TrEMBL record:
PANTHER family: PLASTID-LIPID-ASSOCIATED PROTEIN 4, CHLOROPLASTIC-RELATED. Residues 43-68 are annotated as: Disordered. Pfam families: PAP_fibrillin. Keywords: Plastid. This is Plastid lipid-associated protein/fibrillin conserved domain-containing protein. It comes from Rhodosorus marinus. It is found in: Plastid.
């Protein structure tokens, strides 16, 4: 028994050390991004005409240690995400700018323990995803088809009930609309991570040709039960949140996929 206990303690220590190393690597990456952004802005200042307004070193080296105030950065983030179709049509330059802003915000997170704050609860609207929808969610594999378009993606988090709900509006050719709703159980793991165990998915009808109401159509898929039968495990994922305020949430999932959400009122 002592031998087994020693193995368990060793495994736990390795896990904690691994998490610490990941945090250190992320901190180094954020620092590097801020340095690159500062250099680019300094170069722009040197090359710009004297009558051109450009950020100065004073703007960059603010007392908070980030390039601009959180309010300015979140406003810029919302504006650029609004023209990228939630990241699906973002150019390389736009993605780079978004990553730089995200790095600056993550370095000045007003809620270092997002999972433990009330601000994480409520309804959130997805405004940016760094990867195609069908790669981020296996239930959206069908959206790889050119005949399927993803509309709004909403996420509801309730720490009180331990539940996460994703609502994804879909339009399929020819003009068939509907909503895919997934329900999952939330388990807090540390100050930044929420583990999610997927329970079920529901496909709700919308309309056909914007004339015929399909709201009565509803198909429940017991995802948890199917996974347990086929694979012997419950489908799980996680959400790591590295920035949270009353307007936006910056989270990452498996594969370091970046998710940006705006709070819905």
């Amino acid at each position: 028994m002592a031998f087994i206990s020693g193995i368990a303690v060793g495994a736990r220590g390795a896990f904690v050390q691994g998490r610490a190393n990941v945090r250190k690597q992320r901190a180094n990456l954020r620092s590097q991004r801020r340095c690159v952004l500062k250099m680019n802005m300094d170069e722009a200042e040197d090359e710009a005409p004297s009558d051109t307004a450009v950020p100065t070193s004073a703007d960059i080296d603010s007392s908070s240690g980030v390039n601009q105030s959180r309010s300015d950065l979140t406003t810029q983030l919302l504006e650029i995400c609004a023209v990228t179709n939630r990241g699906q049509t973002a150019s390389s330059e736009q993605k780079s700018i978004i990553e730089d802003i995200v790095a600056s915000l993550e370095a000045d997170n007003p809620n270092p323990a997002p999972v433990e704050t009330d601000a994480i609860e409520g309804r959130w609207n997805l405004i940016y995803l760094s990867t195609p929808f069908y790669k981020a969610n296996p239930l959206l594999a069908s959206t790889a088809s050119p005949f399927v378009e993803v509309g709004q993606v909403r996420q509801t988090i309730s720490m009180e009930t331990g539940e996460l709900i994703n609502e994804i509006d879909i339009t399929a050719f020819p003009m068939l609309t509907g909503t895919v709703v997934t329900n999952g159980r939330l388990t807090p793991v540390g100050a930044e991570r929420l583990e999610v165990a997927l329970e079920k998915a529901t496909i709700k009808g919308g309309s056909a040709f914007e004339r015929f109401d399909l709201g009565a159509l509803k198909l429940d898929i017991p995802v948890e039960e199917i996974y347990q039968r086929v694979r012997g495990t419950v489908p799980e994922t996680f959400i790591d949140t590295y920035y949270l305020d009353d307007k936006i949430r910056i989270s990452r999932g498996k594969g370091s996929n970046l998710f940006l959400f705006a709070k819905m009122m």
